[in-house]
């Protein structure tokens, strides 16, 4: 069994080596064997499926034309200073009370009206919306979704090799168990976004919004608000926690604020009103 596990990881490693590329947003080698054109197609298909589901549920899509135009302007400004401004970025507004936004590969983004809800929402102005969209645009630029797809696909292929070896040695029950372990394990070990991806998107997205001329203090405000709404109930100690806690994200963005403010100053020629570099905390 030890030798078999070794084979599985060897096969996964060989597949990963065949799909290494340089991420222009981070400058690091990443495991992603999709081209940008393929990512765009995946994102468009994802958006189409979501739109169909929303229509079936009676959720209005892009009906609030003023809000759509407002969001598109923010996206246009941020993507212009991103690492991949040439992607066909687009935004779809779902008028439902879900408090969320999401980005599919290639630049297709979805915003849910609940983000603006005065009671449970997280966004109160354009700067705060820019913080949310900057985060999602960073996910796109870092290729987080397709990277996770590639990891899951590679380990799935490697697991199938191991299962086939077991089956040929008349260990059919063990082969079934191995396939089952992989199917269950992907939900824990290969989440859509992990803690590293979320932290990376927070960091890069805040720099993007600052370069686009939006006040990066808004990102800090959002996560402070989220932290307060959660009532301090966080479990960042679990090894299965796939996202940083609201508190961890707030503190990380607070540390990033001086650098983000410098990016803002380079773009606008000044700091935003009320900001003191000697006392950066908002």
Commentary on this structure:
- With 282 residues, the protein is mainly α.
- Helix content is 59%, strand content 7%.
- The chain has helices at residues 2-17, 36-56, 65-80, 126-142, 144-168, 172-189, 195-211, 217-229, 246-268, and strands at residues 20-22, 29-31, 90-94, 101-103, 108-112.
- A hairpin with a 4-residue loop joins strand 4 and strand 5 (108-112).
- Helix 4 (126-142) packs across helix 8 (217-229) and helix 5 (144-168) runs antiparallel to helix 6.
- The longest helix has 25 residues, at 144-168.
- The N and C termini lie far apart (55 Å).
- The model is unreliable at 1-19, 154-159, 174-191 and 234-242 (pLDDT under 50).
What sequence of helices (H) and strands (E) makes up the elements?
HEEHHEEEHHHHHH
**What characterizes the major β-sheet?**
3 strands, mixed
Mean pLDDT: 77
**Strand arrangement across the biggest beta sheet:** 3-5-4
Q: How many DSSP E strands?
A: 5
Strand content: 5-15%
Rg measurement, Å: 21 Å
Model regions low in confidence, pLDDT < 50 over at least 5 residues: 1-19, 154-159, 174-191, 234-242
Rounded to the nearest angstrom, the distance between the terminal CA atoms is 55 Å
Continuous helix count: 9
Class computed from helices, strands and strand pairing: mainly alpha
| Large-scale geometry | globular
Estimate the helix proportion, in percent.
55-70%
